[in-house]
């Protein structure tokens, strides 16, 4: 499946989604950098348990 889609296309899609997500957040809850070197985004929330349930 990956070889059909191509790694470049997958990486580009991940970067686009990360950009859309981080640009929609206020700066305060964002812990990770705006241009992360990894595909992980860390945010600070008041109630982690409720956030997990909501997601």
Short key terms for the protein model shown above:
55 residues, mainly alpha
Structure explained in plain terms:
The chain is mainly α and 55 residues long. The protein has one domain. 51% of the residues lie in helices and 0% in strands. The protein is built from 3 helices and no strands. It has helices spanning 2-5, 7-23, 48-54. The longest helix is centred in the first third of the chain and has 17 residues, at 7-23. The protein is elongated, with a radius of gyration of 14 Å.
Concise summary:
This protein has 55 residues and is mostly helical.
Give the overall average pLDDT: 83
Order of helices and strands: HHH
Cα separation of the termini: 27 Å
Note the main sheet: none
How many structural units, i.e. domains? 1
Q: Give the percentage of residues in beta strands.
A: under 5%
- The structural class is mainly alpha
Low-confidence stretches: none
Structure annotation, total helices: 3
General shape? elongated
Number of strands: 0
Radius of gyration: 14 Å
Proportion of residues in helical segments: 40-55%
């Amino acid at each position: 499946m990956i070889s059909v889609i191509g790694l470049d296309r997958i990486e580009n899609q991940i970067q686009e989604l990360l950009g859309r997500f981080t640009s929609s957040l206020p700066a305060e809850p964002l812990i990770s950098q705006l241009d992360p070197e990894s595909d992980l985004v860390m945010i600070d929330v008041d109630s982690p348990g409720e956030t997990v349930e909501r997601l």
